[in-house]
Amino acid sequence: MTAKSTVKKKPAHAPEHSPGLTNTSVYLTKPLGLLGWDNLEPVLLAALATDEPLLLIGKHGTAKSFLLERLAQALDLNYRFYNASLVNYDDLVGIPVPDAGQTALRYISTPTAIWDAEVVFIDELNRTRPDLQNKLFSIIHERRVQGVRLEKLRYRWAAMNPPPSQDQDQDEVYLGAEPLDPALADRFGFLIEVPDWCDLSESEKKILLIDQFRGRHEFPVDVADLVDRTASLFGSFCENPPDLSAYFIALESQLRGAGTRFSSRRLSTLFRTALGIHAARITLTSTEGEEIPPPDLESSLFLALAHGHPGLASGPIDRGALLALHRQAWSIAGLQDDDPWKELLNIPDPVERVIRAAQADFPLSESELSSLVLEAVSSQPCDELRAAVSLPLYLKLRSGRKIAATAAETLASQLTRVIRPASATHQVYGNALTKCREVAGICSSLGDGTRDSYTRNLLNAFLPDGYRDITPQELKRRFEDLWKRFALPNGNKV
Question: Does domain 1-317 have CATH number 3.40.50.300?
């Protein structure tokens, strides 16, 4: 059998440095013996209060199904569990038979059928056969089967193992686990990466090992009441929502500049889930009974983004980069339309940003321009590209805009061997010899203009040991593009 019997009983992996995140008491996870889930509490409670589809992403043995089953029990709901890699469609809908008029099908319900379910939990979602995944899609998105409304269904929960990534150890790859279809992933309001053993502190690991001998744990609060209070607050937020349009417009721009597309549906969903998380944080804070500063909206927005990014169903997300994009969007949303920083912060690319700021007519102070210079250089992934950005910046700013000593020193440290090339003799073999010959071939085709002279210096500066992360030809192309973007002349003088 691929479904568990009906249950009828009465009764947060955000980054640790999320902006302004207030720690609250833990009511839904640690009392069950789950450790490392503390910062997920507001997200889980928001999923319960908003009824948005929930996807848990984690390795085997991380208590995903255990938590969801216990929550269903605490809420006194009819619960169905289906293993998507094994289930047949008949397990979902029952046995199809013709109706009396032989004109349509009706379904003879079975104990595992979905019709009376109030909670559906679909495990191994990313191991589903394509034909069944299409049928599950309508359940998750519309609460429908074959176009028929599932009137009693409230919660749609799912779980999956992490899909394989390029840099993952082959021993850790889950065979058969694939990235989730993007359209299906986009239907989940919450996508939560759950903690594994390696994410726990040493003290938490010790507690976890002993906790298994203490028997069944109960929730210390009435979970249904906690959900109802959060849902009520969420409803009041939806009736009179805060104006966050500037934030979401800026966020989409920042994400797009970083190569990530969010659909209109996803942005609208993020608005709802952020309000749900904010309501959950307020509820948890008030339940605690202590005087704690009220939760801040910015942190709730980031929690919604960090646990609502559909890309999580395709692989890990750089939380640090995501936090930077969030903070950028939040800063933009707080600026007046005539503030010059609003124009700059709406430019996602740090290099393009400093190109605009370096123009003579742009009203920035010395320290502000310097911070943009440092950001543009540090954003580059390798020494070769840092030098390629630093050189046109130096040439653009040396006779015009002033920058702070720290920024000037940064440019100088990147350019010493480019501006003042040294002659040296090396014995090179193998790959280094190949790179030297490639650079020599490129340099032989360069002319005598200013740009070509600097290109020659730049290419030779990283021989013989450089070019591990970029080819000489790509470095030449990137540098020439930067030269053009900075509007530097290619004459005999700069």
Answer: yes
